[in-house]
Write a structure and sequence with these properties.
Elements (H helix, E strand, L loop, with lengths): L6 H13 L3 H17 L3 H18 L2 H17 L6 H16 L3 H16 L5 H17 L3 H14 L7 H19 L1 H21 L6 H16 L3 H17 L1
Helix pairs in contact: 1-2, 1-11, 2-3, 3-4, 3-5, 4-5, 5-6, 5-7, 6-7, 7-8, 7-9, 8-9, 9-10, 9-11, 11-12
C-alpha cells in the first residue's frame, strides 16, 4: 500500500521557509517529509523530496549531502522506470545543477543533455524549460562551448516570454550572457555587448510586475553581484536593499 505525501503542501511550506532564508527549517522540513515518503512507500514522493534536497544543499554549499541527494534521485528514476518523463528531466536538472555548482562540469553536462531530451519530447512547462536552458548554458560556458551556451541562453530568453513573470528569469539570462561575453572576448572587446545586456536585465527587473516575495528577493540577491562586477554599483546596492526589505517583512 502506498501513502502519498502531499507534494503541493510540502512545496508551499518550503517556499515559506525559503522566503525567510530559514535554511535550518528547510532542512528539517525536507528530512521530515523524506521519512514520511519512506514510511508510506511513496517512491515518487521520495524522488520529489530528494530533488529539493539536492537544490537546498547546493545553496548551502554542502557538497556531500547535495551529491548524495542527487544520486538517490537518479536511482529512484531508474527504479521507478521513469526515464524520459518530465519528472526524470527535473531530477537530471537538479543533479546536474548541483554538480556544476561544485565544479563538476564534465559530470553535469551529460545529465543536462538527458534532461533536454526529456523536456523536448513532452509538453513541458515554460518555466522548467527556461530553467534548464539557463543552467545548461552556464555549464556549457564553463566548459568553453560558448556557441552552444549562446544557443541555450537565446532559447531561455524566448521560452520565458511564455512563463508567468518570466522577466525575472530573462534578467538572470541576460546577466549570464554578459558573464559569457567577458569570458569569451575579454572585457574590452565585449564592453558594448555587456553593457547592453546589463541595461536589458535592469529594465526587466525594474518593469516586472512579479510579486515582491521571497523569489523576487532571491533573484535580486542572485543578480546583484554581476551588476557590481561590471561596475553597476548603484543598481547592485538597490537590488540588495530590495532583497533585505523583503526578507525583513517575511
Amino acid at each position: 500500500m502506498i501513502r502519498p505525501i502531499p507534494q503541493r503542501r510540502v512545496m508551499d511550506k518550503l517556499d515559506e521557509y525559503m522566503s525567510r532564508l530559514d535554511y535550518p527549517a528547510v532542512e528539517r522540513h525536507l528530512l521530515y517529509w523524506l521519512e514520511e515518503a519512506r514510511q508510506g512507500n511513496d517512491k515518487r514522493g521520495e524522488l520529489f523530496v530528494r530533488g529539493e534536497m539536492a537544490g537546498h544543499y547546493r545553496k548551502t554549499g554542502e557538497r556531500d549531502k547535495a551529491e548524495e541527494s542527487a544520486r538517490e534521485a537518479l536511482r529512484l528514476v531508474d527504479e521507478l522506470g521513469m526515464e524520459g518523463t518530465v519528472s526524470a528531466g527535473t531530477a537530471y536538472v537538479n543533479a546536474a545543477t548541483a554538480l556544476h555548482s561544485f565544479g563538476e562540469v564534465e559530470r553535469a553536462l551529460p545529465l543536462f543533455e538527458k534532461a533536454l531530451a526529456c523536456y523536448r519530447c513532452r509538453d513541458t512547462d515554460p518555466s522548467l524549460l527556461g530553467g534548464l536552458y539557463n543552467n545548461m548554458g552556464q555549464c556549457l560556458a564553463a566548459a568553453g562551448d560558448f556557441d552552444r551556451a549562446g544557443e541555450m541562453y537565446n532559447l531561455a530568453l524566448e521560452v520565458m516570454k511564455k512563463a508567468p513573470h518570466g522577466e525575472l528569469e530573462r534578467a538572470i539570462t541576460c546577466l549570464n550572457m554578459a558573464d559569457a561575453a567577458e569570458a569569451r572576448l575579454g572585457m574590452e572587446a565585449a564592453e558594448g555587448e555587456i553593457y547592453r545586456l546589463l541595461d536589458q536585465a535592469e529594465a526587466l527587473l525594474t518593469l516586472s510586475d512579479a510579486p515582491r516575495d521571497g523569489y523576487f528577493a532571491y533573484v535580486c540577491d542572485k543578480c546583484a553581484p554581476t551588476f557590481a562586477h561590471f561596475g553597476y554599483f548603484l543598481q547592485a546596492e538597490a537590488l540588495k536593499k530590495q532583497a533585505e526589505e523583503i526578507y525583513e517583512r517575511a
